[in-house]
Specification:
single chain, alpha+beta, three-stranded antiparallel beta sheet, two-stranded antiparallel sheet, 5 helices, 44% helix
C-alpha cells in the first residue's frame, strides 16, 4: 500500500498499485510514502499523530499542523448562546429540591404544582424518585414558591451568561463562559 500525500502532509488517498500508477496518482506538489499506521495522522518527515480535536467546530490546518476554529466571533457567540439556553432548559426541567426532597420540574409537573398550590387542600405528592410524601396545603404553596425560585434562579444565570457572551471580545472569552 502507498499513501499519496499533499505538500502539507495531508493524507489524500491510499492506493495499491505498481510504481507507474503511483506516479500517475501523485500530484505535482505531493509525494508518495508508505501508508500510515493509523488514519488519524499527517506526514512531516514521517507519520505524526494528529492531536485530539478541541471541539466539534475545529478543523485541522495541515499548513500550520494545528487545529483552528474557523467560526467568526459572532458565530461563536451564537453557538455558545444556543448551548447555554439548552443547559438552562435542562436544569430548569431536571428537578429541584424542597424540604430535602427532589421534585420533578418539567412543564407538566410545573402545571401540577401550580394547580395543587391553588387548591388549598392537603395532598400526597409523588417525588422525582417515585416515592411519595404527604404535603399540607401550606407546604404545597411553599413548594410552588420554591419551584418559582428555582426557575427564576436558572433564568437569572442564563441572563448573566448571555450578557457575558454579548460583551466578550474574543472567541476564548466566549468559550470560557459557563451557565
Amino acid at each position: 500500500m502507498t499513501a499519496i500525500i499533499s505538500k502539507h502532509g495531508e493524507l489524500l488517498k491510499i492506493i495499491s498499485a505498481n510504481a507507474e500508477t503511483v506516479v500517475l496518482n501523485t500530484p505535482k506538489d505531493g509525494f508518495a510514502v508508505d501508508d500510515p499506521p493509523s488514519s488519524n495522522m499527517f506526514y512531516q518527515d514521517g507519520w505524526v499523530e494528529i492531536p485530539a480535536q478541541p471541539s466539534p467546530f475545529h478543523t485541522f490546518d495541515y499548513n500550520t499542523k494545528q487545529w483552528i476554529d474557523p467560526r467568526s466571533l459572532d458565530e461563536t457567540k451564537a453557538q455558545k448562546w444556543a448551548e447555554i439556553k439548552s443547559q438552562r432548559d435542562q436544569i430548569e426541567f431536571d428537578g429541584f429540591e424542597f424540604e430535602g426532597n427532589i421534585y420533578d420540574s418539567n412543564q407538566v409537573s410545573q402545571g401540577r404544582i401550580l394547580g395543587a398550590a391553588s387548591t388549598g387542600v392537603d395532598q400526597t405528592w409523588t417525588l422525582a424518585d417515585n416515592t411519595t410524601v404527604n404535603l399540607t396545603a401550606s407546604q404545597l404553596q411553599q413548594l410552588y414558591v420554591a419551584l418559582q425560585a428555582h426557575i427564576a434562579g436558572v433564568h437569572e444565570r442564563g441572563r448573566i451568561a448571555r450578557q457575558l457572551i454579548f460583551d466578550a471580545e474574543t472567541k476564548e472569552q466566549v468559550e470560557s463562559i459557563q451557565l
